[in-house]
Design a protein that fits this description.
This is Secreted protein. Keywords: Signal. With about 100 residues, the chain is α+β, with helices and mostly antiparallel strands. The protein contains two helices and two strands. The protein has a domain of about 70 residues.
């Protein structure tokens, strides 16, 4: 399983836990007895946000690394040398190339 998929599953589970705990806490009033639960919930949300940022940064790093892959240079295609012929012209030779 890829690290990105594993972290997505982990983040989904964390989000589901946060939503369920949020629903339970929103039904109650904040009292000194359940203040620790509210603090834990806010800590959980901070950790979840941090995890999302890390995943986003890792994904962007992977995309940048893919973009940096060196594109192969143009293939070196052999070219035909021009055909040159020597022609006699009087006492000299003249080269004619096509």
């Amino acid at each position: 399983m890829s690290p990105l998929r594993l972290s997505t599953i982990l983040m989904s589970a964390t989000l589901a836990t946060a939503v369920l705990s949020d629903a339970a806490l929103s039904a109650q009033n904040v009292t000194p007895a359940n203040r620790n639960a509210v603090v834990r919930q806010s800590d959980l949300l901070m950790l979840e946000n941090r995890l999302r940022r890390q995943q986003y940064q890792q994904q962007q790093q992977q995309f940048r690394a893919q973009d940096r892959v060196v594109v192969p240079q143009r293939p070196d295609v052999p070219q035909m040398a021009p055909t040159c012929q020597l022609q006699r012209s009087g006492s000299r030779f003249i080269r004619t190339c096509r």
